[in-house]
Design goal:
The complex is a heterodimer of chains A (292) and B (317). Chain A is α/β, with parallel strands linked by helices and 292 residues long. Chain A has nine helices and 13 strands. Chain B has 317 residues and is α+β, with helices and mostly antiparallel strands. Chain B has twelve helices and six strands. The chains are: A alpha/beta (292), B alpha+beta (317).
């Protein structure tokens, strides 16, 4: 379980002059369900496209199971990828798409794909362009899962789905990868979509990684402290808010003893993500001020 | 990949085969009747006339050949329409191949499967070019047979548009147009703009090559005959008459684009001064070398465009 599925090293991608992703260094261990969270335009799609070789880095490199993915057919067979808005050939039927997967991948589980679509009551003989958005997303996921990939990359897989379909989609996903030990990376601009299933978190904002790590360790390492205003701040403060008398701090801290005037609370994952995103915003504003 | 290519292009393939079948349904019966009429009315005269550059001026076959051509010249309109076949094949086979994938984002599906984008491109390019080439070859062979009698009767086998329709060059145009569609699609990334680029570039190249380059593939020959002589340039030789004029004995042009016959019984100032009928032409036996030169030109262009498209796809982010 200590294998690294995806390793990025000072990875950067630029569109003309604007960096879509910069200085991205992270490791996603194999077997994790990783949530890639950040607002629109933070660089989530860019990171995923770099990992599947659709994009070429302008700086640094990304490796998937130790190999560079660009036009690497051996590696591409091990990566299941579902692009944003789940592009499919609209005039293909479900059966056509399964044949497509089988013809273009050496190790494609046709039986599994058929079985999954049958379970989801998705007709095999109907052009996928006539299916609902949720069904299309399921077809795309099925194609990716039937590759029996070692790593599954899903770019905003639930963005276009209604809440009920979201739940069904994620349930189907977890069912599909539960026993295979597949590493999964899902991106979303809403943590709420992924909170229930992920055990690894990466927060991206303004083209940079703000936070990355196993969910339990991140929760362990952060605390909300409530105490009188003006008391000394223990640990590294990520985010603070104040009323006239009271300060609320989100701190990253070790196990050191806290001064007794602080009340300690556990932090929720959502608060943690919001704090880092807000922090990045504030940092950017400060940068802009300094530059001006 | 072969299956995918077939699945994505089977509709175009079917339409192409239907179009070829329709063309055959029209050309075979009309062609048979043209060949019969030609053999009956014109062939003997043209045979006795021969294919020399100069032939007796009194014994020409103009009357028979002219009558035959008048009777069937309406068919030539069909042939002229087929001049656009390479562009149409380019528009529907070449232009969408890359551009539609990029426009509809399906390249993100296709290029992330267990075949890389290079093999994807090589297979699709190869199969589509192969099929388009076969279709164009069938069309050109059919037209070459069908247009034969009319082209002989009009003496314009070597000239536009027969040269462009009935020979290997027609296949080369088609491959060029299709390859142009690949390359333009890889750069423009949307189907309609790609089609626009393809039409503009293809027509521009075709017109430029036909008008400016083709007449000079090999140095033209000239022939001058005294207007009073009993011979003149053989318009049924199958050569390509580039220019003609009535000139004075020392080479000055009196009447451009004209031929003059002098009659000894009717005195004429120009005839007395030694007027000559002058013709600049490409001889008939160069037809195939011209076809090959033109084909080589377009095939080289097609190969360059395929390489350009491949390089672009490999770099494409």
């Amino acid at each position: 379980m200590d294998d690294i599925a995806i390793q990025a090293d000072r990875l950067g991608k630029r569109y003309r002059k604007k960096w879509a992703l910069r200085d991205c260094t992270l490791q996603i261990p194999a077997g994790r369900i990783a949530a890639l969270v950040g607002p629109n335009g933070a660089g989530k799609s860019t990171l995923l496209h770099l990992a599947v070789g659709l994009l070429r880095p302008d700086e640094g490199e990304v490796r998937v199971f130790g190999a560079v993915p660009r036009d690497n057919t051996a590696l591409l067979a091990d990566i299941g990828f579902v692009a944003q808005d789940t592009p499919l050939y609209k005039d293909f039927t479900g059966a056509d798409l399964i044949t497509f997967g089988a013809r273009l991948n050496r190790r494609f589980d046709t039986a599994l794909a058929r079985e999954r679509l049958a379970q989801l009551r998705i007709p095999l003989d109907q052009a996928v362009g006539t299916l609902s958005g949720g069904q299309r997303a399921q077809v795309a996921l099925t194609l990716a899962i039937a590759k029996r990939p070692k790593v599954l990359l899903l770019d905003e897989p639930v963005a276009s789905l209604d809440p009920l379909s979201r739940r069904e989609f994620l349930q189907a996903l977890m069912g599909g990868v539960a026993e295979s030990g597949t590493t999964v990376v899902l991106s979303s601009h809403l943590l709420a979509d992924l909170e229930r299933i992920c055990d690894y978190l990466i927060v991206l904002q303004t083209a940079r990684v703000q936070l990355a790590g196993p969910v339990d360790e991140l929760l362990e390492a952060h605390r909300v402290l409530i105490g009188p205003r003006g008391a000394g701040t223990p640990g590294e403060v990520i985010r603070q808010s104040h009323t006239d008398r009271q300060s609320t701090l989100l701190v990253r801290s070790g196990a050191e003893a806290l001064p007794p005037q602080w009340t300690v609370q556990d932090v929720s994952l959502e608060d943690l993500v919001l704090a880092y995103l807000a922090n990045a915003d504030a940092g950017r504003a400060a940068d802009l001020e300094r530059a001006a | 990949m072969i299956w995918l290519t077939w699945r994505q292009h089977r509709r175009e393939a079917l339409f192409t085969l239907l179009a070829l079948a329709a063309l055959a349904a029209f050309t075979v019966p009309t062609g048979l009747s043209m060949h019969r009429a030609f053999d009956r009315d014109v062939a003997a005269c043209l045979h006795s006339l021969g294919t020399g550059v100069l032939v007796p001026a009194n014994g020409s076959c103009r009357q028979q050949a002219g009558a035959f051509a008048d009777r069937y010249s309406a068919y030539r309109i069909v042939a002229t329409l087929l001049l656009f076949a390479p562009a149409v094949i380019g528009l529907f086979w070449g232009a969408p191949l890359v551009a539609r994938e990029l426009e509809q984002q399906t390249h993100r599906l296709a290029w992330t499967q267990g075949v890389g984008r290079t093999r994807w491109a090589l297979t699709k390019f190869g199969l589509v070019l192969g099929f388009a080439g076969l279709a164009a070859g069938a069309c050109s062979a059919l037209l070459s047979w069908w247009l034969g009698p009319l082209a002989t009767a009009l003496g314009d086998r070597f000239e536009f548009p027969v040269f462009d329709l009935a020979g290997p060059a027609a296949v080369a145009y088609t491959l060029f147009a299709v390859a142009l569609g690949f390359a333009a699609g890889a750069y423009r990334r949307k189907v309609l703009p790609t089609m626009g680029v393809l039409l503009a570039v293809f027509l521009g190249v075709r017109i430029a090559v036909t008008v400016f380059a083709r007449p000079d593939y090999r140095p033209a020959r000239e022939v001058s005959v005294a207007a009073s002589a009993p011979e003149h340039y053989n318009q049924f030789s199958g050569g390509w008459q580039l220019d003609a004029a009535v000139r004075t004995a020392d080479g000055r042009v009196i009447h451009p684009n004209a031929e003059q016959r002098c009659d000894k019984d009717r005195p004429d100032e120009e005839c007395d001064a030694g007027a000559q009928n002058w013709v600049r032409y490409q001889p008939a036996d160069r037809f195939w070398s011209f076809q090959y030169i033109e084909s080589a030109l377009y095939l080289t262009g097609a190969a360059a465009l395929v390489l350009l498209a491949l390089a672009r796809l490999r770099r494409l982010s």
